[in-house]
Design a protein that fits this description.
The structure is a homodimer of 337-residue chains. Chain A has 337 residues and is of the alpha/beta class. In chain A, 43% of the residues lie in helices and 16% in strands. Chain A contains eleven helices and eleven strands. Chain A has an eleven-stranded mixed β-sheet, with helices on both faces. In chain A, strand 10 and strand 11 form a beta hairpin. In chain A, helix 3 packs across helix 5 and helix 6 crosses helix 11. The longest helix of chain A is centred in the last third of the chain and has 25 residues. The two termini of chain A are 36 Å apart. At the A-B interface, helix 8 and helix 9 of A face helix 8, helix 9 and helix 10 of B.
């Protein structure tokens, strides 16, 4: 398994990114990583870490897409950036997958402009794992496709199910459609048409119908299907509420304690780490011909190590072959562009 | 000020609803409430509470819309339900406003079918107050209008600002547009067109542009504008994450304590009550000719009392006259149906 890692991507790059790479190859003897980025910065970090040199290659890229740049413009103005070079390695089949904690928009734009999708895939979607009262679920799309057709969402049902089965280990993953109410007939045209399409599709047995916003964290289903606009807002709202509530708890609950304040602080810290949205191993861009994992910009060693492990598992479980097989069994959407 | 209260609406009706009504008239000497619902159930509750009979009237309605009924069907099959009767009192100008913790969908459908909107209002929207790191903000629409036009959202900008100014006491309320990124040009067509419309409108000085999901609870603006689909999902996701996190804290943080467990438990309980989404005084349906406050189905005395107080404040501050004046200054949308 060969995976390209954008060594320059993320708020804290390159040190914790390279360090996460070293941890990943140390944990996985069948893994080789290609670190894409500035050789002059990466080499000294590898040397300082006593890294296994034979499974950590460097692919030099002289430019970096800044976290606040306009993605399309940055990709155009900086042809030698680490994100485009990573995609190029994937397109040329020199690696099986790519991982980056860099600019999400640039990662998606870089992938979409290559147009190397799996057969039958109409639009790739970003999947994210979320914690729930019953463990976790996967929600997609969270931002690649803000104006999807119902048939795109049906395809996300296939891709999400395969991800839930092989990465989250659900034997019979269930699918819910994000909507404003549970009854059929709720929501806007996209929601109504998608609901009907799922019901008439080979996925109907695992489709539990519409779910509401509060159902996600209750864990009512394994796969949450939504358009990239709603999914992106939901993902960031969850982050916002989590941060907000944790700060309130730190102030008000810890503030009420004296002798056991330290114990409570430790427990709260553990809980924040456990449910930290950035530690779930990154978000795969599903539907690409290859493996692409997008990490949170705030990723450090652990998040990078987890994301690389997910990429390797994704490849070894041949998720893309399974996606292609299952999409073959789906009827072609009547909303074809 | 005369307000009709749906005495039968909500998960716990009628006892805490009627009790909240008694508290409200006791606190406000210029308020009269019309309790709409089953006289045989309401009278004994009033008697047991020693209520001031002269400012608590009963308007008998023999039917109730169940919380799980299809709203449109229920309104049709049960003409004497307490929600329809409340709307009727408003339409006949026998009350200044109505308050209900009953079926939200039925409340909205009941109001929309009457079509008694303020002049110039194209589509009413539901506004909800949310807690933020800087106090609170108002978000609309959260469910009345799942497929709005940009001009509807611009009108929500006016209505939300007036609400923020007079109910949340913000002198110069700022407006943000819910989107998937901060840069102009982000999002789907509705988001892009709405962004442009705000920028070209008299609201441009208070419009801060696009905001992302995590910005809501950071309190980056006073008014969050979004379509009813996204707003509804956001509202319920917030509830879901809040519940989920509070349960985790109860298990993991309280579980780590022994001698100060009780103190932590009390602090956590206080925090849940303080930030409980149901205690923010209900959600007004803005744009109606009259006052309409929709409460959470789980409302008890305090939530009902708060909602009635908001309705009275809304009327005394003449919010509807201000909405009408400010809408007069807006250009008519080019997306007129």
């Amino acid at each position: 398994m060969r995976i390209a890692l954008d060594a320059m991507g993320g708020d804290h790059a390159p040190v914790p990114i390279v360090s996460g790479a070293v941890q990943a190859v140390t944990a996985d003897p069948d893994l080789t990583l290609v670190l894409v980025g500035d050789r002059a910065q990466i080499e000294p970090i590898l040397e300082s870490l006593n890294a296994p040199a034979d499974r950590l290659e460097i692919f030099h890229a002289s430019q970096v897409v800044g976290m606040n740049e306009s993605p399309v413009e940055a990709l155009r103005k900086k042809p030698d950036n680490s994100i485009s070079r990573s995609w190029q390695l994937l397109a040329e089949k020199k690696v099986d997958g790519i991982v980056s904690a860099g600019h999400t928009g640039a990662m998606v734009a870089g992938g979409l402009r290559l147009k190397r999708f799996l057969p039958k895939v109409r639009r790739p979607g970003i999947a994210t794992v979320m914690p729930t009262a019953k463990g976790s679920c996967v929600i997609l799309d969270v931002g690649a496709n803000v104006s999807p057709k119902p048939s795109h969402l049906l395809q996300y049902g296939v891709m999400g199910s395969i991800f839930a089965r092989h990465i989250l280990n659900r034997d019979n993953p269930t699918i819910g459609l994000m909507n404003v109410g549970e009854e059929a007939g709720k929501g806007h045209d996209l929601a109504k048409d998608t609901h009907n399409l799922f019901h008439a599709s080979p996925l109907k047995d695992r489709f539990i119908g519409n779910i509401e916003g509060r159902d996600i964290h209750r864990g009512v289903c394994d796969v949450v299907i939504t358009d990239g606009f709603v999914g992106n807002v939901v993902l960031k709202v969850c982050e916002g509420v989590f941060d907000f509530v944790m700060k309130m708890v730190a102030t008000e609950v810890l503030g009420a304690l004296s002798v056991e304040k330290l114990q409570a602080q430790m427990a709260l810290k553990g809980l924040i780490e456990k449910y930290d949205y950035s530690s779930f191993g990154g978000a795969p861009l599903l539907g690409i011909d290859g493996i692409c994992i997008i990490c949170h910009g705030s990723s450090r060693e652990k998040a990078i190590r987890n994301a690389i492990a997910v990429a390797a598992q994704y490849g070894r479980n041949k998720l893309n072959e399974k996606i292609t097989q299952e999409l073959d069994a789906l009827p072609t959407g009547s909303d074809e562009e």
